[in-house]
Amino acid sequence: MRGTLAGRITLVCLAVAGVAVIVAGLVAARLIRTTADNVLQSSLSAQADVVATQLDETGIGNRLGVGKVADVVRGQGISVVVRRAGGQALGEAVAVQAATKLGLAADHSGRVTAGGSQYLVETRVVGTRGAAFALVQPARSAEATQRALVRSIALALGIGLLVAAVAGFGSGRLLGRPLRRAALAAGSLRAGRRDVRVPVQGPREVAEVAGSLNSLADALAVSEARQRDFLLSVSHELRTPLTAVTGFAEAIADGVASGDDALRAGRTIQREAARLERLVTDLLELARLGADEFRLDLAPVDLGALVRDCAEVWQLRCEREGVRLSVSAPAAAVPVVADARRLRQVVDGLAENALRVTPAGAPMVFSLSVSAAGAALSVRDGGPGLAPEDYPVAFDRGVLNKRYRDRRPVGSGIGLALVHGLVTRMGGTLTAGPAPEGGAAFTMTFPLAPAGPRGR
Hints:
Catalytic activity: ATP + protein L-histidine = ADP + protein N-phospho-L-histidine
GO molecular function, one term: phosphoprotein phosphatase activity
Pfam families: HAMP (PF00672), HATPase_c (PF02518), HisKA (PF00512)
Structural class: alpha+beta
Protein name: Signal transduction histidine-protein kinase/phosphatase MprB
Keywords: ATP-binding, Cell membrane, Hydrolase, Kinase, Magnesium, Manganese, Membrane, Nucleotide-binding, Phosphoprotein, Protein phosphatase, Stress response, Transferase, Transmembrane, Transmembrane helix, Two-component regulatory system, Virulence
CATH topology of the largest domain: Heat Shock Protein 90
CATH superfamily of the largest domain: Histidine kinase-like ATPase, C-terminal domain
C-alpha cells in the first residue's frame, strides 16, 4: 500500500533513532560492565592489601586476628580463604575452589569461574613460611549494574523514538506541503486550466518539480494555442473549396448552370474536390507521421535522377504559370538512403509551395550539390520570401498560413510541417532561408550512401 511522505519519513526517523540508541546502548553496556568489574576488582585488591598489612608472619595462625578480619569483609559479602603455613586452604568450598584456581602461591588478582558462577579473587602471601589468604567476591553486583543499564537504555530508546516520531512527522509534513501543491496544480492542468503555477521553493529537488510543472503548463498553453490556430487555418482551407463545390453543385442541381456553364461548373467541382482530397491526405499523413507504425522503405536512391524526373513534370506546370524553371544537378549518380516515394512527395510539396508564390517571369530553381557533408537539394523561388523571424518557424503547423494568408497565396499550413517530418524520419535535415533569387530556399540534406543505387 502507498503511504504518505510524512509517514515514510517518520518511519525512517524511528528506524534511525532506534538503531542509534540500541548500538549506543550495547557499546555503553560493554564499557560499563568492564568499568564495573575493574572498580570492584580494584576495591577488592585494596581491601586485600589492607588485610595483609594487619597480619604478620605468625598472625595468619592467630585465630582471633583472622576471625576479626573475616567478620569485617564478610559483612561486605566477601568470603575469606586462609591457608596456614604448610597446611590446606580453609573457608567456604566454592571460595576455596575459586582461590585455588587463581593460585595461592603468590599475589594474584583476577576473575575465575567456580561452581557455575563468576568470582573476583585477590590472593596474598603473608610472611616467608608459605601462609596465604584470599578474598573472594561474587561478580553478581556487576549484573545488577547491567540491569540498571538496560533499564536506562530502554528509557533512552523510548524517548528517542518519541522525539524521532515527532521530528519525522513534522519534517514529512513540511516537505510534503510543496508536493501537495504540485499535485493540486497537476490536477488543475488535467481539468483544463493553464493559468496555474506552483511557487518554486523548498529543497532543490522539490523546487525542480515545481519548476518542471510550471514549464509543462507553459508548454501546454503554447501547444494548445498553436493547435487552435492550426485548426482555424485548416477550417479556412476546407471552407473555401467546400463553398465552391456546394455553390456549383447547387447551380447544376437547380438547372441554373447548363451547357458550357455546367461543364465549367463540373470542372471547378472536380478541381476543388481534388484540392480537398490533397488536404485531407496531408492531414492524415501528418497525423500518422509520429506513429510507430508509419512505414518507410529505405533504400539507396539516385537523388540526381529523381531531381531530373521531377523537373520534367514541373517544367510544364511552370510554363503554364509563366515561371522559369532551372535545374542544376551533377551528371554523376548521387546515392542517398531514403524512401523514393516519400522523397518525391517532399520535392513535389516544396515545388508546389514555391510555384504558388512565384510571380510570372520570376525563376524557380532545383539545385543539387554534393559535398563532404552529404547531398544537398534546394528548392528556391523568386517570390516575395519570408521575414527573417519566420524562417525558424517555417515548419510549425499553420504558422505561415496565419501570418501570410491575408497578403499572398498560401497553402493549408500543413505542407511544410509534413515534408519536414518526412525528411527527418528518413534521416535527413530540412532548413529554410533566403534564396539568391529573392524568395525563399528550402534545403534538404542527406548523407551519401556507401554503395551505388539499386533503384529509385
